[in-house]
């Protein structure tokens, strides 16, 4: 990232669909450097009026469900129909080193070759459930650049799904055949979030087993769904390998989005998501201030040591830290 960023020029590059400009813009909004935050805000303010028209899909699934292969196949299919597809794939960052695998491009080889696709693997940076903090901002950038389909791939079944479900139109859960083991591996909360469920790898000898799994998942969803909503979560089978069932899965995604528009209202849903974004930004800024204030970092380490040794309680340590934070950050008002 250059030291000086010409924000108006960068916004122009993004809206012109220039890949180098898109990459620089996402790097800017992902940056944790304090000097980059006002630049990122200015950039997003310029791009927001040109965003919001894409179909936003969150994708998750148990390990081995074939998420990247599914995206590769589905993305290519959508591009063949004239769409532009952006994939924001959040990789798990190491909690010890901060490192990230960032291997999604190798697992989406065919899609990565298309000029109408943009794949951005972003390290989670240790934030909640592996969701990259700047995912919402990256979605704005991709939409302003003319991408009409945004797919957010999460790292797996966990807390990240709650965050992703709060920023997309439709949440798609990818499962595998073998209902007993798979149902045990999927938390109830994740099933409740799912708007569409697809049992992948329904090909060859697995086809019959996939249908059985889909049946069992359908039964589970009937028990869990709120009948008052007037909608039942569809459970389908597909194969990213043979491309069978992909059209039906995508139609289910579009049907859900149409249902949202006719009931809740897509504008209302997006407005609620903007409020969530507001608080995510506030929380992120607070956390950044904690990490960038040397005296607070030093105090935090000392308090951690004292809590570990049981010389002070966690409650006492947190009170001391917040009192110090109130002094370091004027207007916080802790203890007033």
TrEMBL record:
Gene3D superfamilies: 1.10.287.130, 1.20.5.170, P-loop containing nucleotide triphosphate hydrolases
GO molecular function, one term: kinase activity
Protein name per UniProt: LAO/AO transport system kinase
Keywords: Kinase, Transferase
CDD domains tied to this protein: MMAA-like
GO annotations of cellular component type: cytoplasm
InterPro entries named in the record: GTPase_ArgK, P-loop_NTPase
Keyword Kinase among record annotations: yes
Family note: Belongs to the SIMIBI class G3E GTPase family. ArgK/MeaB subfamily.
């Amino acid at each position: 990232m250059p030291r000086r960023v010409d924000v108006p020029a960068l916004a122009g590059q993004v809206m012109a669909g220039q890949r180098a400009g898109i990459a620089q813009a996402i790097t800017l909004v992902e940056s944790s450097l304090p000097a980059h935050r006002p630049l990122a805000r200015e950039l997003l303010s310029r791009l927001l009026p040109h965003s919001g028209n894409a179909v936003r899909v969150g994708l998750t699934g148990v390990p081995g469900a074939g998420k990247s292969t599914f995206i590769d196949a589905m993305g290519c299919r959508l591009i063949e129909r004239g769409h532009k597809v952006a994939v924001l794939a959040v990789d798990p960052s190491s909690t010890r080193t901060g490192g990230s695998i960032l291997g999604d491009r190798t697992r989406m080889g065919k899609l990565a070759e298309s000029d109408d696709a943009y794949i951005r693997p972003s390290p989670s940076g240790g934030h909640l459930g592996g969701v990259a903090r700047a995912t919402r901002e990256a979605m704005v950038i991709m939409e302003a650049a003319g991408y009409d389909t945004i797919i957010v791939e999460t790292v797996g079944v966990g807390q990240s799904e709650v965050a992703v479900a709060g920023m997309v139109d439709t949440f798609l859960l990818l499962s595998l055949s073998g209902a007993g083991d798979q149902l045990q591996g999927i938390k109830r909360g994740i099933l409740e979030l799912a708007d569409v469920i697809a049992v992948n790898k329904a090909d060859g000898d697995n086809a019959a087993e996939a249908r059985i799994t889909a049946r069992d998942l359908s039964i589970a969803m009937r028990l869990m769904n709120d009948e008052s909503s007037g909608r039942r979560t569809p459970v389908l089978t597909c194969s990213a390998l043979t491309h069978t069932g992909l059209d039906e899965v995508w139609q289910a995604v579009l049907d859900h989005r149409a249902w949202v528009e006719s009931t809740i209202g897509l504008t209302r849903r997006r407005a609620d998501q903007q409020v969530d974004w507001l608080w995510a930004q506030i929380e992120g800024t607070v956390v950044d201030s904690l990490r960038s204030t040397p005296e607070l970092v030093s105090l935090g380490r000392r308090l951690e040591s004292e809590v570990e040794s049981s010389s002070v309680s966690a409650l006492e340590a947190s009170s001391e830290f917040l009192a110090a934070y109130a002094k370091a950050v004027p207007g916080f008002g802790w203890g007033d």
